[in-house]
Amino acid sequence: MRPVRLWPALPQNHPLNKLVLSASSCVEQSTQWSACSRSCGAGVSTRVSNQNPACKLQMETRLCKVRPCSRAAQPASSKRVWGRQGRCEASYTSPGPIRLVHQGCYSTRAHPLRYCGQCTDSRCCTPYHTTTAEVTFSCPTGRLLQRAVMMIHSCVCHSSCPYAPFRNPALWGYRP
């Protein structure tokens, strides 16, 4: 078993993350993260994983934002550069670190974000390499929330567009 926090949403030094499990025969399993539920603006990405203390398969979600919906927030097309093997280097970073917003709560620190641009042909530009960061949000009531958030590192252009309406049944009626 690899050394991982039992409860990733809690700080690493939290007492629940210091518990030592007895030798377990749990074989870790996870699906790939789904495409973001929205092509622009805030959405969610899902996967099924047993990387939890009970070693039970559970659906996990992470917040995601492939690109802002506002055209004004996207760079001019003259900045787009095409890489090899169909990789679209039309990704761009936010003008500066941004405080993320989730259900009226703001991230406690600002994050430099990378977004995917638009492909100049009929293909889709979607995240290619991503990681998941645990982000703390502070709400007006003083409550703190921890949420998993997708961080984009690179994007790719391809013909299989994941943003057809209602493509992911697991998200029907889901509100993060």
TrEMBL record:
It comes from the Eukaryota. GO terms for cellular component: extracellular matrix; extracellular space. Residues 88-162 form the CTCK domain. One of its GO terms (molecular function) is integrin binding. Signal peptide: none annotated. GO terms for biological process: cell adhesion; positive regulation of cell differentiation; signal transduction. Keywords: Disulfide bond, Signal. The keyword Lipid metabolism does not apply. PANTHER family: CCN FAMILY MEMBER 5, CONNECTIVE TISSUE GROWTH FACTOR-RELATED. This is CTCK domain-containing protein.
